[in-house]
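User: Can you help me understand a structure? I only have the sequence.
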Amino acid sequence: MNNEIGMAFAFAPRSIGFAGIALAAVASLATAQGGGGDGFLFNSPRGSFSIRGGYALASAGSDVFSEATTQLTLDKKDFNSFSVGGDISYSLTSRFDLAFGGDYSAAKHDSEFRDWVDNNDQPIEQTTDFKRAPLTVSLKYYVTDRGRSVSQYAWIPSKYSPYVGVGGGAMWYSFRQRGDFVDFEDLAVFYSEMQSSGWTPTGHAMAGVDYSLGTWVSFTAEGRYTLGKATLDSEEYEGFEKIDLSGFAATVGFRVRF
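Assistant: Let's start by predicting it. Here is the structure, written out as tokens:
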């Protein structure tokens, strides 16, 4: 199953490109509709879907990251990366939404040992990949009314709609290192591919705001902090504590009401 997930995520760069095209198309639609808060719907929206992109900061607080940044020419910031995601929300009440979402981020960096070279005085090089993909369910609360009814059949969206929320779900992760390494018992240099991946529970808190660009479309900005840890399941990582999958992500995108 992990192989299938990995193959799917191999197409992430192409998916990000498609998401960018979709964002541009939605923006064009919003421009054609007119200014924020203009227009009306026949009824209040039943829900919405969004696509978004941004930057994910990794806490990288566990010892597997500490060893990587101590032994190798890596810094904690090297585990940060761009992210892409989206969600679909269903209105429970005028203020509460139930949202189903997913996000994907992937960091990849080349490195070498800081204090060691091989027998030919050449760098001992390797590559480290760190991927995270949470699938979540969230309860969102809109702090102010998202719109107002002007008659039995007309509903006008508010220009600004701030919200907060909490949720949880499952996160798929992969931590992979491949290249040359040093055996500190006999100082031999050897090639290895080490990987730990799988699913683990996750929770998050978020806050954001929707800014109406027209009747159907709004610009959305969100900050989200995610908590997660997982047991490293590879023999090469035996003895390490759980890997820290937590971090903060800031994203922007477009939301379409339906």
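Now, to help you interpret it: The helical segments are 2-9, 12-33, 63-71. The chain has a mean pLDDT of 87. Let me know which part you'd like to focus on.
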